[in-house]
Structure formats: C-alpha cells, structure tokens
Amino acid sequence: IITPTVTVSISKCELPLPELAPLYYTGDAQTPPIYDNGYYTVDRTPHTLAGSYPVTLTLTDPDNYAFIGTDKPTAEVDMLILPAENFWIVTPAVSDVYTSFSPDPVGMSRFGTPRFLYSRDGVEYSDTAPTTPGSYFMRAEVAECENYSALISVPIPFKVIAEEVVGIATKSPANKMTYRAFEEFDPTGLTVGVTYNSGRYEGIGAE
C-alpha cells in the first residue's frame, strides 16, 4: 500500500494597515489615535508640531500574521497633525484715550500673541501708537505659521483727545505769607493741585 504524501500550506492571516484620522495642532503633545491590540503593538511617541510622523506597528505573532503588502514583522502608518484654525478668545477692542496716556488695546488669540497696529487713514498701519489728538484706527494681527492660521481683526475706530486743565487749587500755601512793599514773593512751600479733563490729578510745587 502506497500512502500518498499531502502537503498542506497554511497561509498567514493578513492584517490591513489602519488609516489614522488626522489630528489638529493644539499646542500640546499628541499621541497617535491607535492602541495596542491582540495583533500588534503601537509606537505611541507623542508629537506637538504640525506635520506627518511615521507610527511603527509591530506584530505580536509574526509566524501566523502578516501586514498586507509586506512580509516584515513591522509596518508604518502616518500620523498627521494639521495646522489649527486660529480664533479670538478675547475680541480686540480699544477705547478713546487722552494725550497724556497711551492706547490700551485688548485682544487674545487661541494661538500666538497679537500685535496691535495703528493707522490714521485705515489703510497704512504701524506699531507706533498715536499721541496727537485726532481720529485713528486700531487693528490686531497674529501672523500665520506652520502650526496655525493668521488672524486679522476688523479696523476699530478710536480717538486721541487733547488733555486740558479744568481746575487748579492750592494744596498748601507758601511758608511766608507776609511781605513788605516791593519785597519779592517767596514760593517756598507753595503747592497747587491741577485737575485735567482726563480725570488725572497732578500736584505741582511752585518754583
């Protein structure tokens, strides 16, 4: 009796490579949105900046499993971090100001630090804050970079108002109050308080 020899070949079970959903830049380190399982382990190295990063998958049983398209025990998939869409957390604003003060604009973006720019005509802007009376515009900007988009606020009108004296009062009299005829006045000790339309108060000593 001749016993035939039969060769049985059992192919490895092929595993498809996962497709990772893209992430968006947050300013914090992020790990790949995939985890170890019964078939392979995942290199979950964190990354922060926008870009494409290879993620290595390693088979736990390479004798019986294989990734589709390769006979190696490892394979790579891409972790993609896309640039974020920037936005205002605090809407840019500025108030009217008197000539003795500098404009005090506000504004906060999710990413980056805003620059506050000024213009007389609403066309050409610079970093130099106005100091002379008149009508102006303020605009806040955040520059674009590889991690997030740019931001430019609408032009915000404001005024620089001339500061004027609205009141003068004696705070303390001069030390010497009695004089002979034609004797020169001695202002030593004399101080006056000056009030401005801006609400500012200033004490001035006579000289």
Report on the architecture of this protein.
The chain has 207 residues and is an all-beta fold. The chain is 0% helix and 40% strand. The chain contains no helices and 16 strands. It has strands at 13-15, 23-24, 40-42, 51-59, 65-67, 74-82, 88-93, 97-98, 106-109, 115-119, 134-142, 151-152, 156-161, 165-172, 191-196, 201-205. The strands form five sheets. Strands 8, 10, 11, 12 and 13 form a five-stranded mixed beta sheet that branches. The protein has a four-stranded mixed beta sheet with strand order 2-6-4-3, with no helix packed on it. A hairpin with an 8-residue loop joins β11 and β12. The chain is rod-shaped. The chain starts with 12 loop residues before the first strand and ends with a strand. The model has no long low-confidence stretch (mean pLDDT 89).
What's the mean pLDDT score? Answer: 89
Tell me the number of strands. Answer: 16
Broad shape: rod-shaped
How far is the N terminus from the C terminus?
A: 134 Å
* Major sheet size, sense and barrel closure: 5 strands, mixed
Strand content: 35-45%
Please estimate the helix content: under 10%
Series of H and E elements: EEEEEEEEEEEEEEEE
Number of helical stretches of at least 4 residues: 0
Radius of gyration: 37 Å
Query: Which stretches of 5+ consecutive residues score pLDDT under 50?
Result: none
Which structural class matches the secondary elements?
A: mainly beta
